[in-house]
């Protein structure tokens, strides 16, 4: 029962984090770039981060707990010995890259967003979205095995 709840919460977090970034990258961002209007991004970010950040925290908390259904020790996955280990290790590495890029975007770019640095922010958004989809893909691979 605990496993099922964890998995559902993990998938819920995944829907919010990856889904939110896909909406941002595919619909909001092109509009903001076309109209040269950073305010469009600002409005979306300020509303989305209230649910997006808790979703990511939920992902990490449930994800770390789920790892222990497959391994006795989290660090075992870094031996890359089986596809399951490889997928979990890649998820952790890509998550750390995501956190660094997201923190840089939040602290350095969004707080003083101007038209001149919108393209730089756009690359951050696109990269975080691709990383999110990749982490989701590797997550599905843990159960499915080799693609
Ligand atoms: C943006 C972050 C993340 C996303 C979008 C994500 C997404 C997913 C998805 C879609 C699955 C497939 C679930 C299924 O097969 O039904 C999954 C599984 C899994 N994820 Fe994540 N995940 C994220 C972060 C993490 C983190 C940080 C960890 C911890 C290392 C983690 C560990 C796992 C594990 C162990 C599974 C296998 C669950 C199972 O099928 O039994 N995930 N993830």
Describe this structure in words.
The protein is mainly α. It has one domain (2-68, 80-144). 80% of the residues lie in helices and 0% in strands. It has 4 helices and no strands. The chain has helices spanning 2-35, 38-67, 83-109, 118-144. The protein is elongated, with a radius of gyration of 17 Å. The structure holds protoporphyrin IX containing FE. Protoporphyrin IX containing FE (HEM) binds at residues 7, 10-11, 14, 17-18, 59-60, 63-64, 66-67, 69, 88, 91-92, 95, 132, 135-136, 139-140, 142-143.
Key words describing this protein structure:
single chain, 147 residues, mainly alpha, 4 helices, 80% helix, elongated, binds protoporphyrin IX containing FE
Individual helix count:
4
Shape: elongated
Percent of sequence in beta strands: under 5%
Report the biggest beta sheet as strand number plus sense, adding barrel if it closes: none
| N-end to C-end Cα span | 28 Å
The helix content, as a percent range, equals: over 70%
The count of strands amounts to 0
Tell me the number of structural domains.
1
Uncertain parts = none
Helix and strand element order: HHHH
Structural class by sheet pairing and helices: mainly alpha
Q: What is the CA-based Rg, rounded?
A: 17 Å
Distinct ligand kinds: protoporphyrin IX containing FE
Mean pLDDT over the full residue set: 94
What is the topological layout?
Elements: H1 2-35, H2 38-67, H3 83-109, H4 118-144
Helix pairs in contact: 1-2, 1-4, 3-4
Residues 7, 10-11, 14, 17-18, 59-60, 63-64, 66-67, 69, 88, 91-92, 95, 132, 135-136, 139-140, 142-143 line the site of protoporphyrin IX containing FE.
């Amino acid at each position: 029962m605990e496993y099922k709840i964890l998995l559902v919460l993990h998938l819920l977090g995944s829907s919010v984090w990856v889904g939110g970034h896909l909406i941002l990258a595919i619909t909001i961002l092109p509009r903001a770039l076309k109209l040269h209007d950073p305010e469009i991004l600002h409005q979306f970010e300020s509303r989305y981060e209230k649910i997006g950040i808790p979703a990511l925290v939920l992902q990490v908390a449930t994800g770390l707990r789920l790892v222990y259904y497959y391994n006795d020790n989290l660090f075992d996955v870094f031996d890359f010995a089986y596809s399951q280990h490889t997928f979990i290790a890649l998820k952790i590495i890509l998550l750390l890259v995501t956190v660094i890029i997201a923190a840089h975007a939040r602290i350095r770019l969004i707080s003083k967003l101007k038209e001149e640095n919108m393209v730089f922010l756009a690359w951050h958004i696109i990269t975080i979205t691709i990383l999110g989809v990749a982490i989701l893909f590797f997550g599905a691979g843990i159960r499915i095995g080799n693609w």
